[in-house]
Amino acid sequence: QVRLVESGGGLVQAGGSLRLSCAASGRAVNSLPMGWFRQAPGKEREFVAAISWRDGSADYVDSVKGRFTISRDNAKNTVNLQMNSLKPEDTAVYYCAAKVPPYSSTYGYWGQGTQVTVSS
Predict the structure, then answer these.
(1) What distances in angstroms separate CA 26 from CA 29, 33, 98, one per listed residue?
(2) What percent of the chain has pLDDT over 90?
(3) Which of 28, 38, 85, 95 has a CA between 20 and 30 Å from the CA of residue 61?
(4) SS3 for the chain, per residue?
């Protein structure tokens, strides 16, 4: 079993920054593919970023490239999402997810989400 708990959401003005954190328990974050997703009101959940369990390489949706950075802290067993130059369209509930087992085709474990609101 893997438990994921997100934190760090909040209200920020456009152009500002937030850092989301996902604390994992039950497995080490560097042993699992992990990702961040978001869901805005009235929209489907979308992929935001992922980090490889093999080499720590990252992948991003085009709309956040150059603004968001995903990273992991093995000592704290967390996966983080640094969000800079935030835009109102980044407003959403952000979810952390993990693939268990690592070769799974889908993200099977999810956190409860953290709200990010960007005001214009």
Answers:
(1) 9, 14, 11
(2) 92
(3) 28
(4) CCEEEEECCEEEECCCCEEEEEEEECCCHHHCCEEEEEECCCCCCEEEEEECCCCCCEEECHHHCCCEEEEEECCCCEEEEEECCCCHHHCEEEEEEECCCCCCCCCCEECCCEEEEEEC
